[in-house]
Amino acid sequence: MDAELVGTLSEYVASAGGTDALSRTPIDEVLVLCSTQASLPFRQMYKPSLCVVVQGAKRIEVADKVLDYAAGSALAVSVELPAFGCVTKASKAEPFLGLTIEFDGDTLRGVLEKLPKPPAVGPSGSGLFVETLSAGARDCIIRLVRLFNTPEAVPVLYPAIIRELYYWLLTGPNGGELRKMVQVDSHTRRIADSIIHLRRNFKRPFRIDELAEVACMSTSSFHQHFKTLTSMTPLQYLKQLRLIEARRLMVTEAATVTRAALEVGYESPSQFSREYSRLFGCSPKRDAAALRPYGEQLTL
């Protein structure tokens, strides 16, 4: 990646709290991650976003799908997904540096509508892909990072930079996948709408036909497209969403295991503990105690 970008981002990290942290920036939609060592896979919810690697390398695992991406490339996530993410290349001499830029659907749609020739849409695929950033996209990232040092310029300059970045992404090799995110009648958009509905109501019992109705699909078609996009069934998705939220409650709000279980929709704390241990590899109480020193990271 560009040496100027590495230097500018390193300076910002040093001024914003140092290494080994996920930090906010003057731009609400942008987070910065710095790590001086490789990390174990960590289960979390990934919002629709562009995850750019400036230095080092990362990996994401969704069900049986594994994607590696390194400096000069980015991971695009088109729908909110529970996944394992980890840093795979980092050191004190060359720490991992990365940016997460949350997608703005309205702005992305606006840029798409201005294109003289919209990108071709291929068959349904998974909700994430890795792309090597073009020269135009890298230039946008450099100018975006420079804005961190002049917060007063963000309202004026960020909208133009992000529109340009979307242009380069939409006209790149995966433009069709991004088009699906905002195209009203696409399967991706319909499944995304059902996920938003699920996210808002995950604490109560769900039937698959209710989600299918939100997506304007038959139950069988919905199930097929949901699994294609997320690599899991709707019920598997719901279970992981509930367990990740329960983890957040125990770590950031000091909720007891029983309270966390009930708050996310479980009727049986013992069933909750079994499923939690199966997903995270240890008991809820032990896991929460280990993560509590890093609780602020779970709220970003």
From TrEMBL:
SUPFAM superfamilies noted in UniProt: Homeodomain-like
GO terms for MF: DNA-binding transcription factor activity; sequence-specific DNA binding
Keywords, in A-Z order: DNA-binding, Transcription, Transcription regulation
Alphabetical list of Pfam families matching this protein: AraC_N, HTH_18
Transcription regulation recorded as keyword: yes
Name assigned to this protein: AraC family transcriptional regulator
Listed PANTHER family: ARAC-FAMILY TRANSCRIPTIONAL REGULATOR, TRANSCRIPTIONAL REGULATORY PROTEIN
Ranges for domain HTH araC/xylS-type: 192-290
InterPro entries cross-referenced by the UniProt entry: Homeodomain-like_sf, HTH_AraC, HTH_AraC-typ_CS, Tscrpt_reg_HTH_AraC_N
